[in-house]
Amino acid sequence: MFLRTLTATTLLVTSLSAAAPLTAQNHKTDPIITRNVEFATQQVGLMVDTMNTFRQIPSPRTTDEQGRLVFTTLDDWTSGFFPGTLWYLYELSGDSVWLQPAIHYTEGMERIKYYRGNHDIGFMIYCSFGNGLRLTQKADYKDVIVTAARTLCERYRPGAGVIQSWPRQRGWDCPVIIDNMMNLELLFEATRMSGDSSFWNIAVSHADQTLKHHYRPDMSCYHVVDYDSETGAVRSRVTAQGYADSSAWARGQAWGLYGYTMCYRYTRDPRYLKQAEAIARFIFTHPNLPKDLIPYWDYDVPNIEQEPRDASAAAITASALYELSTYVNAKEAKQYKKLADRIIKSLSSPNYRATLSTNGYFILMHSTGNKPGPNEVDVPLVYADYYFLEALKRKRDLEQK
Protein backbone atom coordinates (compact mmCIF):
# COMPACT_ATOMS: atom_id res chain seq x y z
CA MET A 1 0.00 0.00 0.00
CA PHE A 2 1.21 3.48 -0.93
CA LEU A 3 1.24 5.15 2.48
CA ARG A 4 2.09 2.04 4.48
CA THR A 5 5.16 1.18 2.43
CA LEU A 6 6.09 4.83 2.25
CA THR A 7 6.67 4.96 6.00
CA ALA A 8 9.81 2.87 5.62
CA THR A 9 11.30 5.36 3.16
CA THR A 10 10.52 8.61 4.90
CA LEU A 11 14.12 9.83 4.79
CA LEU A 12 14.26 9.30 1.04
CA VAL A 13 10.98 11.10 0.51
CA THR A 14 12.02 14.04 2.65
CA SER A 15 15.12 14.48 0.54
CA LEU A 16 12.92 15.22 -2.48
CA SER A 17 12.01 18.64 -1.15
CA ALA A 18 11.64 20.76 1.95
CA ALA A 19 11.28 19.00 5.29
CA ALA A 20 7.79 18.36 6.53
CA PRO A 21 6.24 21.32 8.35
CA LEU A 22 6.78 21.10 12.09
CA THR A 23 4.50 23.84 13.37
CA ALA A 24 1.81 21.37 14.31
CA GLN A 25 4.27 19.63 16.60
CA ASN A 26 5.97 22.68 18.12
CA HIS A 27 2.94 24.59 19.41
CA LYS A 28 -0.12 23.83 21.46
CA THR A 29 -2.96 23.11 19.08
CA ASP A 30 -6.71 23.26 19.63
CA PRO A 31 -7.89 19.67 20.24
CA ILE A 32 -10.58 20.03 17.58
CA ILE A 33 -7.81 20.52 15.01
CA THR A 34 -5.79 17.62 16.37
CA ARG A 35 -8.76 15.25 16.35
CA ASN A 36 -9.79 16.20 12.84
CA VAL A 37 -6.28 15.89 11.45
CA GLU A 38 -5.81 12.50 13.11
CA PHE A 39 -9.07 11.29 11.59
CA ALA A 40 -8.33 12.80 8.17
CA THR A 41 -4.92 11.14 7.95
CA GLN A 42 -6.50 7.76 8.61
CA GLN A 43 -9.50 8.27 6.34
CA VAL A 44 -7.66 9.79 3.39
CA GLY A 45 -4.85 7.30 3.89
CA LEU A 46 -7.36 4.55 3.15
CA MET A 47 -8.42 6.40 0.02
CA VAL A 48 -4.83 6.71 -1.19
CA ASP A 49 -4.26 3.02 -0.56
CA THR A 50 -7.34 2.21 -2.64
CA MET A 51 -6.22 4.48 -5.47
CA ASN A 52 -2.74 2.97 -5.61
CA THR A 53 -4.16 0.06 -7.61
CA PHE A 54 -4.74 2.35 -10.63
CA ARG A 55 -2.11 2.78 -13.34
CA GLN A 56 -3.29 6.24 -14.33
CA ILE A 57 -3.71 9.24 -12.03
CA PRO A 58 -7.24 8.85 -10.63
CA SER A 59 -9.20 11.88 -9.46
CA PRO A 60 -11.69 11.17 -6.64
CA ARG A 61 -14.79 13.34 -6.67
CA THR A 62 -17.71 11.79 -4.75
CA THR A 63 -19.53 8.49 -4.15
CA ASP A 64 -22.23 6.58 -5.99
CA GLU A 65 -25.59 5.42 -4.63
CA GLN A 66 -23.89 2.41 -3.02
CA GLY A 67 -21.37 4.64 -1.26
CA ARG A 68 -18.50 3.59 -3.48
CA LEU A 69 -15.72 5.96 -4.48
CA VAL A 70 -16.38 7.72 -7.81
CA PHE A 71 -13.54 9.09 -9.90
CA THR A 72 -13.57 11.73 -12.59
CA THR A 73 -11.08 12.80 -15.25
CA LEU A 74 -8.22 15.22 -14.78
CA ASP A 75 -10.11 17.59 -17.10
CA ASP A 76 -12.85 17.90 -14.48
CA TRP A 77 -13.00 21.15 -12.50
CA THR A 78 -12.54 19.26 -9.22
CA SER A 79 -9.29 17.48 -10.12
CA GLY A 80 -6.99 19.82 -8.20
CA PHE A 81 -8.71 19.36 -4.86
CA PHE A 82 -7.40 15.88 -4.07
CA PRO A 83 -3.72 16.81 -4.55
CA GLY A 84 -4.47 19.94 -2.51
CA THR A 85 -5.96 17.79 0.24
CA LEU A 86 -2.74 15.78 0.37
CA TRP A 87 -0.67 18.94 0.66
CA TYR A 88 -2.81 20.15 3.57
CA LEU A 89 -2.45 16.79 5.30
CA TYR A 90 1.32 17.04 4.83
CA GLU A 91 1.26 20.51 6.36
CA LEU A 92 -1.21 19.85 9.17
CA SER A 93 0.20 16.51 10.27
CA GLY A 94 3.86 17.47 10.03
CA ASP A 95 4.41 13.96 8.66
CA SER A 96 6.60 13.58 5.57
CA VAL A 97 4.76 10.37 4.70
CA TRP A 98 2.32 12.61 2.81
CA LEU A 99 4.95 14.27 0.65
CA GLN A 100 5.36 11.58 -1.99
CA PRO A 101 1.65 11.10 -2.71
CA ALA A 102 1.16 14.88 -2.78
CA ILE A 103 3.94 15.21 -5.35
CA HIS A 104 2.71 12.18 -7.29
CA TYR A 105 -0.88 13.35 -7.70
CA THR A 106 0.13 16.97 -8.28
CA GLU A 107 2.71 16.32 -10.97
CA GLY A 108 0.35 13.90 -12.68
CA MET A 109 -1.79 16.95 -13.48
CA GLU A 110 0.86 19.01 -15.26
CA ARG A 111 -0.81 18.79 -18.68
CA ILE A 112 -3.78 20.70 -17.24
CA LYS A 113 -1.74 23.90 -17.52
CA TYR A 114 -2.92 23.93 -21.15
CA TYR A 115 -6.57 23.13 -20.39
CA ARG A 116 -8.93 25.37 -22.39
CA GLY A 117 -12.30 23.74 -21.77
CA ASN A 118 -13.52 26.37 -19.29
CA HIS A 119 -12.30 28.74 -16.59
CA ASP A 120 -11.64 26.12 -13.93
CA ILE A 121 -7.93 25.82 -14.58
CA GLY A 122 -7.53 28.16 -11.60
CA PHE A 123 -9.08 25.60 -9.24
CA MET A 124 -7.28 22.74 -10.92
CA ILE A 125 -3.74 24.13 -10.93
CA TYR A 126 -3.59 26.47 -7.96
CA CYS A 127 -5.08 24.05 -5.42
CA SER A 128 -2.50 21.46 -6.48
CA PHE A 129 0.65 23.16 -7.77
CA GLY A 130 0.02 26.33 -5.76
CA ASN A 131 0.03 24.49 -2.46
CA GLY A 132 2.92 22.35 -3.64
CA LEU A 133 4.98 25.43 -4.46
CA ARG A 134 4.15 27.03 -1.14
CA LEU A 135 5.35 23.99 0.78
CA THR A 136 8.31 22.84 -1.32
CA GLN A 137 9.53 25.83 -3.38
CA LYS A 138 9.98 23.55 -6.39
CA ALA A 139 10.88 25.99 -9.18
CA ASP A 140 9.19 23.99 -11.93
CA TYR A 141 5.87 24.36 -10.11
CA LYS A 142 6.14 28.11 -10.63
CA ASP A 143 6.48 27.58 -14.37
CA VAL A 144 3.33 25.43 -14.39
CA ILE A 145 1.36 28.12 -12.54
CA VAL A 146 2.44 30.95 -14.86
CA THR A 147 1.72 28.85 -17.96
CA ALA A 148 -1.73 27.99 -16.57
CA ALA A 149 -2.39 31.69 -15.96
CA ARG A 150 -1.58 32.45 -19.59
CA THR A 151 -4.00 29.74 -20.65
CA LEU A 152 -6.74 31.17 -18.42
CA CYS A 153 -6.20 34.66 -19.83
CA GLU A 154 -7.17 33.40 -23.27
CA ARG A 155 -10.72 33.43 -21.90
CA TYR A 156 -10.55 37.14 -21.08
CA ARG A 157 -13.01 39.22 -23.10
CA PRO A 158 -11.72 42.82 -23.19
CA GLY A 159 -15.03 44.27 -24.38
CA ALA A 160 -16.78 42.94 -21.29
CA GLY A 161 -13.79 43.07 -18.95
CA VAL A 162 -14.39 39.53 -17.69
CA ILE A 163 -13.07 36.00 -17.98
CA GLN A 164 -15.65 33.87 -19.76
CA SER A 165 -16.57 30.87 -17.62
CA TRP A 166 -18.31 28.46 -19.98
CA PRO A 167 -18.61 28.04 -23.76
CA ARG A 168 -21.54 29.63 -25.56
CA GLN A 169 -24.58 27.50 -24.74
CA ARG A 170 -28.25 27.88 -23.77
CA GLY A 171 -28.34 31.05 -25.87
CA TRP A 172 -25.60 32.68 -23.78
CA ASP A 173 -22.83 34.76 -25.35
CA CYS A 174 -20.33 35.26 -22.52
CA PRO A 175 -21.53 33.47 -19.36
CA VAL A 176 -19.69 34.25 -16.13
CA ILE A 177 -20.44 32.37 -12.93
CA ILE A 178 -19.67 33.60 -9.43
CA ASP A 179 -17.35 30.60 -8.96
CA ASN A 180 -14.95 32.34 -11.37
CA MET A 181 -13.85 34.67 -8.57
CA MET A 182 -11.85 31.76 -7.17
CA ASN A 183 -9.66 31.56 -10.28
CA LEU A 184 -8.30 35.06 -9.76
CA GLU A 185 -5.80 33.81 -7.18
CA LEU A 186 -3.93 32.04 -9.98
CA LEU A 187 -3.63 35.34 -11.85
CA PHE A 188 -2.53 37.41 -8.87
CA GLU A 189 0.13 34.83 -8.07
CA ALA A 190 1.28 34.68 -11.69
CA THR A 191 2.02 38.41 -11.60
CA ARG A 192 3.90 37.99 -8.33
CA MET A 193 5.96 35.16 -9.81
CA SER A 194 6.59 36.57 -13.28
CA GLY A 195 6.41 40.34 -12.88
CA ASP A 196 3.88 40.45 -15.72
CA SER A 197 1.16 42.86 -14.62
CA SER A 198 -1.28 41.77 -17.32
CA PHE A 199 -2.43 38.86 -15.14
CA TRP A 200 -3.09 41.24 -12.24
CA ASN A 201 -4.97 43.71 -14.44
CA ILE A 202 -7.26 41.00 -15.80
CA ALA A 203 -7.98 39.73 -12.29
CA VAL A 204 -8.90 43.23 -11.08
CA SER A 205 -11.08 43.90 -14.12
CA HIS A 206 -12.98 40.65 -13.57
CA ALA A 207 -13.43 41.35 -9.85
CA ASP A 208 -14.70 44.85 -10.58
CA GLN A 209 -17.21 43.75 -13.20
CA THR A 210 -18.46 40.97 -10.94
CA LEU A 211 -18.83 43.47 -8.11
CA LYS A 212 -20.87 45.70 -10.40
CA HIS A 213 -23.12 43.15 -12.07
CA HIS A 214 -23.40 39.97 -9.98
CA TYR A 215 -24.68 41.43 -6.70
CA ARG A 216 -28.19 42.46 -5.65
CA PRO A 217 -28.93 45.28 -3.18
CA ASP A 218 -29.10 42.78 -0.29
CA MET A 219 -25.56 41.57 -1.23
CA SER A 220 -26.66 38.14 -2.37
CA CYS A 221 -25.38 37.15 -5.78
CA TYR A 222 -26.70 35.69 -8.98
CA HIS A 223 -25.09 32.48 -10.13
CA VAL A 224 -24.70 33.31 -13.84
CA VAL A 225 -24.40 36.68 -15.55
CA ASP A 226 -24.36 36.56 -19.35
CA TYR A 227 -22.53 39.47 -21.00
CA ASP A 228 -22.32 40.70 -24.54
CA SER A 229 -18.69 39.81 -25.14
CA GLU A 230 -18.14 42.87 -27.36
CA THR A 231 -19.95 45.65 -25.49
CA GLY A 232 -20.04 44.31 -21.93
CA ALA A 233 -23.80 44.84 -21.70
CA VAL A 234 -25.56 42.40 -19.39
CA ARG A 235 -27.83 40.14 -21.41
CA SER A 236 -29.30 38.13 -18.53
CA ARG A 237 -28.87 37.12 -14.90
CA VAL A 238 -29.87 33.53 -14.19
CA THR A 239 -28.99 30.40 -12.25
CA ALA A 240 -27.64 27.01 -13.26
CA GLN A 241 -27.34 25.28 -9.89
CA GLY A 242 -29.56 27.37 -7.61
CA TYR A 243 -33.28 27.09 -6.94
CA ALA A 244 -34.27 30.09 -9.08
CA ASP A 245 -32.71 32.96 -10.99
CA SER A 246 -33.51 35.30 -8.11
CA SER A 247 -32.52 32.96 -5.27
CA ALA A 248 -29.31 32.80 -3.22
CA TRP A 249 -27.50 29.56 -4.08
CA ALA A 250 -25.54 28.72 -0.95
CA ARG A 251 -22.21 27.74 -2.46
CA GLY A 252 -22.33 30.79 -4.71
CA GLN A 253 -22.51 33.06 -1.67
CA ALA A 254 -19.51 31.22 -0.21
CA TRP A 255 -17.49 31.60 -3.42
CA GLY A 256 -18.14 35.33 -3.36
CA LEU A 257 -17.13 35.72 0.28
CA TYR A 258 -13.93 33.78 -0.28
CA GLY A 259 -13.19 35.48 -3.60
CA TYR A 260 -13.44 39.07 -2.41
CA THR A 261 -11.52 38.31 0.78
CA MET A 262 -8.74 36.86 -1.38
CA CYS A 263 -8.84 39.85 -3.74
CA TYR A 264 -8.36 42.17 -0.77
CA ARG A 265 -5.33 40.11 0.28
CA TYR A 266 -3.57 40.95 -2.96
CA THR A 267 -4.83 44.45 -3.77
CA ARG A 268 -5.75 46.02 -0.41
CA ASP A 269 -8.59 47.69 -2.30
CA PRO A 270 -11.10 48.68 0.43
CA ARG A 271 -14.01 48.02 -1.94
CA TYR A 272 -13.21 44.32 -1.86
CA LEU A 273 -13.03 44.20 1.91
CA LYS A 274 -16.32 46.06 2.16
CA GLN A 275 -17.88 43.58 -0.25
CA ALA A 276 -16.60 40.56 1.67
CA GLU A 277 -18.04 41.92 4.91
CA ALA A 278 -21.36 42.68 3.22
CA ILE A 279 -21.58 39.12 1.90
CA ALA A 280 -20.82 37.79 5.38
CA ARG A 281 -23.63 39.92 6.81
CA PHE A 282 -26.05 38.54 4.24
CA ILE A 283 -25.13 34.96 5.08
CA PHE A 284 -25.19 35.23 8.85
CA THR A 285 -28.31 37.36 9.15
CA HIS A 286 -30.35 35.24 6.76
CA PRO A 287 -33.42 33.85 8.53
CA ASN A 288 -33.02 30.48 6.79
CA LEU A 289 -29.48 29.85 8.03
CA PRO A 290 -29.73 26.90 10.45
CA LYS A 291 -28.48 27.20 14.01
CA ASP A 292 -25.54 24.91 13.30
CA LEU A 293 -24.49 27.31 10.47
CA ILE A 294 -24.43 24.59 7.81
CA PRO A 295 -26.66 26.05 5.10
CA TYR A 296 -29.27 24.36 3.01
CA TRP A 297 -28.20 24.18 -0.63
CA ASP A 298 -30.11 27.38 -1.44
CA TYR A 299 -31.22 30.03 1.05
CA ASP A 300 -34.53 30.66 -0.71
CA VAL A 301 -35.81 27.20 -1.63
CA PRO A 302 -39.40 26.51 -0.46
CA ASN A 303 -39.99 24.02 2.36
CA ILE A 304 -36.38 24.53 3.20
CA GLU A 305 -36.25 22.28 6.25
CA GLN A 306 -36.93 19.32 3.96
CA GLU A 307 -34.02 20.20 1.68
CA PRO A 308 -30.43 18.87 1.81
CA ARG A 309 -27.60 20.82 3.39
CA ASP A 310 -24.36 21.82 1.72
CA ALA A 311 -21.34 21.12 3.92
CA SER A 312 -19.07 22.30 1.10
CA ALA A 313 -20.55 25.81 1.28
CA ALA A 314 -20.00 25.82 5.04
CA ALA A 315 -16.36 24.72 4.73
CA ILE A 316 -15.62 27.38 2.10
CA THR A 317 -17.27 30.00 4.30
CA ALA A 318 -15.30 29.00 7.39
CA SER A 319 -12.00 29.17 5.52
CA ALA A 320 -12.89 32.60 4.15
CA LEU A 321 -13.91 33.90 7.58
CA TYR A 322 -10.61 32.93 9.17
CA GLU A 323 -8.78 34.98 6.56
CA LEU A 324 -11.28 37.83 6.71
CA SER A 325 -10.71 38.07 10.46
CA THR A 326 -7.10 39.12 9.82
CA TYR A 327 -8.11 42.25 7.88
CA VAL A 328 -10.56 43.92 10.26
CA ASN A 329 -10.56 45.50 13.70
CA ALA A 330 -10.26 43.40 16.84
CA LYS A 331 -13.99 43.31 17.60
CA GLU A 332 -14.92 42.21 14.08
CA ALA A 333 -12.03 39.75 13.97
CA LYS A 334 -13.34 38.07 17.10
CA GLN A 335 -16.83 37.83 15.63
CA TYR A 336 -15.67 36.34 12.34
CA LYS A 337 -13.41 33.82 14.03
CA LYS A 338 -16.19 32.82 16.42
CA LEU A 339 -18.51 32.15 13.49
CA ALA A 340 -15.85 30.11 11.70
CA ASP A 341 -15.15 28.14 14.87
CA ARG A 342 -18.85 27.34 15.19
CA ILE A 343 -18.91 26.03 11.61
CA ILE A 344 -15.85 23.87 12.26
CA LYS A 345 -17.44 22.51 15.42
CA SER A 346 -20.57 21.56 13.47
CA LEU A 347 -18.63 19.98 10.62
CA SER A 348 -16.54 18.03 13.12
CA SER A 349 -19.61 16.50 14.74
CA PRO A 350 -21.07 13.08 13.85
CA ASN A 351 -23.79 14.96 11.96
CA TYR A 352 -21.33 15.87 9.21
CA ARG A 353 -18.03 14.08 9.71
CA ALA A 354 -17.95 10.49 8.54
CA THR A 355 -16.81 7.48 10.54
CA LEU A 356 -13.63 5.70 9.58
CA SER A 357 -13.74 3.52 6.44
CA THR A 358 -17.17 4.84 5.38
CA ASN A 359 -18.32 7.63 3.07
CA GLY A 360 -16.05 6.53 0.22
CA TYR A 361 -13.11 7.54 2.44
CA PHE A 362 -14.10 11.22 2.25
CA ILE A 363 -13.99 13.26 5.46
CA LEU A 364 -17.31 15.16 5.30
CA MET A 365 -20.83 14.02 4.53
CA HIS A 366 -23.88 15.96 3.33
CA SER A 367 -22.73 18.23 0.53
CA THR A 368 -24.85 19.18 -2.47
CA GLY A 369 -23.29 19.71 -5.85
CA ASN A 370 -26.18 20.44 -8.22
CA LYS A 371 -29.67 19.87 -6.82
CA PRO A 372 -31.55 21.01 -9.96
CA GLY A 373 -29.35 18.68 -12.06
CA PRO A 374 -30.05 16.58 -10.18
CA ASN A 375 -26.62 15.21 -9.41
CA GLU A 376 -24.41 14.89 -6.35
CA VAL A 377 -27.17 15.56 -3.85
CA ASP A 378 -26.44 14.87 -0.16
CA VAL A 379 -23.10 13.20 -0.85
CA PRO A 380 -19.44 13.68 0.04
CA LEU A 381 -17.56 16.01 -2.31
CA VAL A 382 -13.81 16.32 -2.65
CA TYR A 383 -13.85 20.11 -2.46
CA ALA A 384 -15.73 20.05 0.84
CA ASP A 385 -12.81 18.10 2.32
CA TYR A 386 -10.25 20.43 0.75
CA TYR A 387 -11.75 23.62 2.19
CA PHE A 388 -12.40 21.94 5.54
CA LEU A 389 -8.69 21.14 5.85
CA GLU A 390 -7.77 24.60 4.61
CA ALA A 391 -10.02 26.09 7.29
CA LEU A 392 -8.30 23.95 9.95
CA LYS A 393 -4.92 25.13 8.71
CA ARG A 394 -5.99 28.77 8.83
CA LYS A 395 -7.50 28.31 12.29
CA ARG A 396 -4.26 26.78 13.53
CA ASP A 397 -2.17 29.58 12.03
CA LEU A 398 -4.36 32.24 13.65
CA GLU A 399 -4.21 30.62 17.05
CA GLN A 400 -0.47 30.09 17.00
CA LYS A 401 0.42 33.71 16.31
Gyration radius over CA: 20 Å
Q: Strand sequence of the main sheet, in spatial order?
A: 5-6-7
Number of E-state strands = 9
SSE order, one letter for each helix or strand: HHHHEEHHHHEEEHHEEHHHHEEH
Give a written overview of the molecule.
This protein has 401 residues and is mainly alpha-helical. It has 15 helices and 9 strands. The chain has helices at residues 2-6, 10-14, 23-26, 31-51, 81-93, 99-107, 121-136, 139-153, 184-194, 197-213, 250-267, 270-285, 311-324, 330-347, 382-400; strands at 59-63, 69-72, 156-157, 162-163, 174-177, 224-227, 234-238, 367-370, 375-379. Helix 4 (31-51) crosses helix 5, helix 8 packs across helix 9 (184-194) and helix 13 (311-324) packs parallel to helix 15. The longest helix is centred in the first third of the chain and has 21 residues, at 31-51. The protein starts with a helix and ends with a helix. Residues 4-19 have low confidence and may be disordered.
Map the helices and strands.
Blueprint (H helix, E strand, L loop, with lengths): L1 H5 L3 H5 L8 H4 L4 H21 L7 E5 L5 E4 L8 H13 L5 H9 L13 H16 L2 H15 L2 E2 L4 E2 L10 E4 L6 H11 L2 H17 L10 E4 L6 E5 L11 H18 L2 H16 L25 H14 L5 H18 L19 E4 L4 E5 L2 H19 L1
Antiparallel strand pairs: 1-2, 3-4, 5-6, 6-7, 8-9
Descriptive terms for the model:
401 residues; 50% helix; two-stranded antiparallel sheet; three-stranded antiparallel β-sheet; 15 helices
In short:
With 401 residues, the chain is mostly helical. It has helices spanning 2-6, 10-14, 23-26, 31-51, 81-93, 99-107, 121-136, 139-153, 184-194, 197-213, 250-267, 270-285, 311-324, 330-347, 382-400, and strands at 59-63, 69-72, 156-157, 162-163, 174-177, 224-227, 234-238, 367-370, 375-379.
